[in-house]
Amino acid sequence: MSAVLQPSDPPAQFVDGELAYTDEGSGAFTVLAVPGLPGSSRDFRWLAPALADRCRVIRIDPPGYGASPRRGWSGMSTAERAAAVRVVIERLDVAPVVLVGHSAGGAVVAHLAAHHPELVKACVMVSSTGPRPHFGRAPLQVLALLLRMPPVRGVLTPLVRRLYAAQGFPGYLSDDERMFALLDAAAFDFRDHRDNLAAMRRPTLVAWSMDDPIISASTFGQLADAVPAGPRLEFADGGHNPQKTHASGLADAIVAFVG
């Protein structure tokens, strides 16, 4: 992680009083950053300041994460998560944007680029979900059914905490964020995602780390082959979060790509 950069944590602003985002920087184009599961605007607190002296950076808190509430215990599909991002783009009148998606946020980027290309200038997919499954959906669907039952959810909470800790996820996550991420992962449809990847027409930068413990490097290779042409940025290390561990290098690549 850069010794020069300091992480950025601007105050949350809201669309319709509920959908939270942050807004910083200025420049010739606007980056809109979409986190994965169970991510929030905090996932880009290193990348944003690396970009903010050259462009405007808007970061999203999807419903249920960060400062954005969620009502109920149903999983959100990629299309539903993309609809929330679309609301922010349109209400702030910032289209077309450079969409940056991390992990499952890359699927949101693909959905918007496929279905609403008029909103998208270019795409950046960081450690993004690829065209092939990298997790078993069936066990998650069973777990999702259990998590909808409040008594069972309370019993499972300590186990879920340990599961996330073992995967290296940050300790600041709330129990609700962990649970919502499992529900949303259970609702993920890889067939729809493959269709969206095939329908993308905007130039796309793909970045990943070879030592990613969540998604294999071979999956990122498949992703790079599936999306439109653009830079392919491979880091030897950095884990699942090169937007944190290689913030400066990724920011420079994004600016060079868009410019």
Topology:
Elements: E1 13-15, E2 19-25, E3 30-34, H1 47-51, E4 56-61, H2 78-92, E5 97-102, H3 105-115, E6 120-126, H4 137-147, H5 150-166, H6 175-186, H7 190-199, E7 204-209, H8 217-226, E8 232-235, H9 242-245, H10 247-258
Helix pairs in contact: 2-3, 3-7, 4-6
Query: Mean of the pLDDT scores?
Result: 95
Question: Cα-atom Rg, whole angstroms?
Answer: 17 Å
Number of strands: 8
What class would the helix/strand composition place it in?
Answer: alpha/beta
| CATH architecture classification | 3-Layer(aba) Sandwich
Q: Any idea of the CATH topology?
A: Rossmann fold
Q: What are the low-pLDDT stretches, counting only 5+ consecutive residues below 50?
A: none
Helix content, binned percent: 40-55%
Tally of distinct domains:
1
Taken in chain order, the helices and strands follow as EEEHEHEHEHHHHEHEHH
CATH C-level category = Alpha Beta
User: Major sheet: size, sense and barrel closure?
Assistant: 8 strands, mixed
Q: Give me the CATH superfamily.
A: Alpha/Beta hydrolase fold, catalytic domain
Strand order within the widest beta sheet: 1-2-4-3-5-6-7-8
